[in-house]
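Weekly structure sync, notes
Attendees: PL (lead), two postdocs, one rotation student
Agenda item 3: pending single-chain targets
PL asked that the sequence for the first pending target be pasted directly into the notes so everyone works from the same version. It is reproduced below exactly as submitted, 271 residues in total.
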Amino acid sequence: MGNRQSIITLLTDFGSQDYFVGAMKGTILSLNPSAQIVDITHDIPPQDIHAGAFNLLACYADFPAGTIHVAVVDPGVGSERKPLLIECAGQFLVGPDNGIFSWICERERDFRAIHLVNEKFFRYPVSRTFHGRDVFAPVAAALSNGVPANELGEEVKDCVQLDSLAPQQESDGRTQARVIHIDRFGNCITNLTRDHLTEGSSKAGTRLILNDRTIANFRNFFGDASDDENDLFCIFGSAGFLEIAKRDSSAAAVLKARRGDTVVLIKSHLN
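Predicted structure, written out during the meeting:
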């Protein structure tokens, strides 16, 4: 063991106005001055576990094996919810057991969860309101110094799960999906992937319905030519999900869409 230049990412809803993120970094660097800390984002809306889950899902695979991801969006801090370490996809996920890692686990399928109970790796005194600094940051530092995951706690089988990312196939051939995230540009990101919609089908009468609006325009990129430049359109975003967008505007505002709204995929009978 000893100080190693491990990558530790941070994703929180703490913002940048207060000291919280700095305190977490200070705790990590006090235990491993060689740690390479990467900020994913600290602008997750307060207590928005789903937004945290989506943003981590969208980028965890961009990091090398051995990366330690600390995600703290934790409305249950101080309660009985478990502090958790998950080994998954050759990486480590550290944070509260509130579902924030469940979409990654659902995608990867193979994972191991450990309830963090070995308090010798915590920072003392442990605050009831700041487990990011006092539990998750020092555990991440311990991992970065080579402490085996088994020393940090005990394996558990049951973890909190968010609603599945899988759309539902209806008996009439329609696919019922939903909006899982709305980004800062107002793009409505659905849980539909290329597994549900091929390039050929998007050009053959396939359409989406969201809030009684039909979107049948599919593009390969945002500036793609269209019969109606002002129309709503569908596009696969960089996270691999089908998005509903509007050029130079907010599709969510136009559609009055919110996360969780139902999206129906209707494929042409030609497909």
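Discussion points:
- The CA atoms of residues 49 and 100 lie 6 Å apart.
- The chain has two domains: 7-156, 168-266.
Action: rotation student to compare against the earlier draft before next sync.
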